[in-house]
From TrEMBL:
<keyword id="KW-0732">Signal</keyword>
<feature type="signal peptide">
    <location>
        <begin position="1"/>
        <end position="20"/>
    </location>
</feature>
<protein>
    <recommendedName>
        <fullName>Beta-lactamase-inhibitor-like PepSY-like domain-containing protein</fullName>
    </recommendedName>
</protein>
């Protein structure tokens, strides 16, 4: 499960880079749909399996929507970092957060579980 979430996070970040560069790609990934929540700016992306069962739900959230255990872990591991973006992944009821952080010298992409698990996926130096 952890490997699948990490792999999806990397693929998602690569997909964002490709889309940001304006290049269209054709893949054989499961179908997906986008749900707009009325009265809010929330957008939830659903990725479905071939049997049309919900496989992954993904949405951008604010830092005030993070669970307390995740915030506590981030305060211990990266105390001086600011949030750039937060993506909440819900895979079969297990929530994982892919968080991009910025401090004075680096950008870090970290993965946090809703129970406080923590791992650095990518660290980039600023120029």
């Amino acid at each position: 499960m952890k490997t699948m979430i990490a792999l999806f996070a990397v693929l998602f970040s690569l997909q964002l880079n490709v889309n940001a560069n304006g290049k269209a790609t054709k893949t054989n990934e499961p179908a997906d749909s986008i749900e707009y929540i009325a009265g809010t700016t929330d957008v939830i992306k659903h990725v479905y399996s071939e049997e049309f069962n919900t496989w992954i739900e993904m949405r951008y959230i604010n830092d005030d929507e993070l669970p307390l255990k995740v915030i506590s872990k981030l305060m211990k591991k990266v105390p001086n970092a600011d949030f750039v973006s937060i993506v909440e992944l819900n895979v079969e009821g297990i929530k994982t957060y892919i968080i991009t952080l910025e401090d004075t010298n680096t950008y870090k992409v970290v993965r946090c579980g809703d129970k406080g698990q923590f791992g650095i996926l990518q660290s980039l130096q600023k120029q």
